[in-house]
Amino acid sequence: MKLAMFGAADPGPCVPDGRRGAVGLSVAADRVHPAGMSEILTGGCQCGRIRYRAEIASDEAYLCHCRMCQRATGGVSIAFVNLPKAALRWEGEPDWYASSPIARRPFCSACGTPLGFEYPDSDRCDLTVGSFDDPARFRPTSHFGAESLHESWIDTRALPRYRSDDHAALNDRWMNAVGKLPD
Fold first, then answer.
1. Using the 8-state DSSP alphabet, how is residue 71 labeled?
2. Beta bridge mates, 83
3. Which portions of the chain are predicted below pLDDT 50?
4. 20-150 architecture in CATH?
5. Which of 130, 139, 117 lies closest to 60 in space, CA to CA?
6. CB-based burial, 4-37: b 16+ in 10 Å, e otherwise
7. What pTM, to 2 d.p., does this model score?
8. Residue ranges of the domains in the chain?
9. To 5 degrees, how large is the angle CA 156–CA 160–CA 165?
10. Is 142 in contact with 50 (CB distance < 8 Å)?
């Protein structure tokens, strides 16, 4: 399935006034995947009810720290990939939440997964990096909503790291509940 890509001049959805250079966000087409090729990537919600296909031409993503995104996700930030709406196909319409008078967010009402962000009057949208089936392709290139950034959560390299597959009590819970560990 080939999706049309449009070189829209509209900034990422969290950019309030189109001053792309002022906040350091880049248009998805600014950094193109090898040999100028775009790729169809898939994703969706945790329960699988909402799925999407997106034509992605860049590995660039950004972290939004604005209070609206913090409240919408319950996290200190959210990772987004910006793309033209014409490059996105929903396989099953998501639920939508009008998160403000100027924006709305797709999500799954069955499992609660946040899937993105958009201004209805824009030709671009954001998808959450974590909702892609393989989010490893993307890399953060900028921060937005820096006025609400929690600095202590940015560089966590010095913190100890624990693997969930090494956590015996968690593994036992999974094995007792479903007979296997989650994917």
1. H
2. 125
3. 1-32
4. Alpha-Beta Complex (3.90)
5. 139
6. ebeebebbbbbbeeeebeebebbbbbeeeeeeee
7. 0.78
8. 20-150
9. 110
10. no
